[in-house]
Structures are given as C-alpha cells and as structure tokens.
C-alpha cells in the first residue's frame, strides 16, 4: 500500500515574497550588526539598509544562528527610541 503524502506549505514561494532579499554586502551586514547592538528597531535598520523588515528579520535569524549576534533588550523591536 502506498504511503500517504501530506500537503506541504513551502516558505517564500509566492509572488508576494519576491521582494524578500537574501544577499547583502559585507558593509550592510556590518551596519546591521552596529545598529542591532545599539538597539535600533528593525524598521529603522530596514530603512537604513533600503530593504524590508522581513529581510532584516532574516538577517537577524541568520546572524544569531551563526553566533554573530546575541539577544538584546527589546528583541527584534529593539530598545532605542527613535524620533522622526
């Protein structure tokens, strides 16, 4: 008897995901790490890197998994108050 195959949802495959960026320059990563350590919120980091909040969240996950950044006060949202 054949084994039943479950339906799957594959991440980042829809048209809406085309704006997600997966490659960054070394300088952009350095800027991310500096801003992360200073407590900037991901939306401000995204503005500075000219990318989406999703892409910045992916950078944070990647660098945390690689041991290049650690937890910070405020988590992804950060702790630094930014006045426009």
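-> sequence recovered:
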């Amino acid at each position: 008897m054949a084994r039943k195959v479950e339906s799957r949802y594959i991440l980042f495959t829809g048209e809406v995901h085309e704006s997600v960026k997966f490659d960054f320059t070394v300088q952009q990563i350095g800027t991310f790490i500096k801003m992360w350590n200073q407590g900037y919120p991901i939306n401000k980091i995204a503005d500075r890197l000219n990318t989406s909040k999703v892409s910045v969240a992916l950078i944070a996950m990647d660098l945390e998994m690689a041991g290049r950044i650690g937890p910070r006060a405020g988590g992804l949202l950060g702790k630094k108050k930014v006045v426009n």
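The two ends are 64 Å apart (CA to CA).
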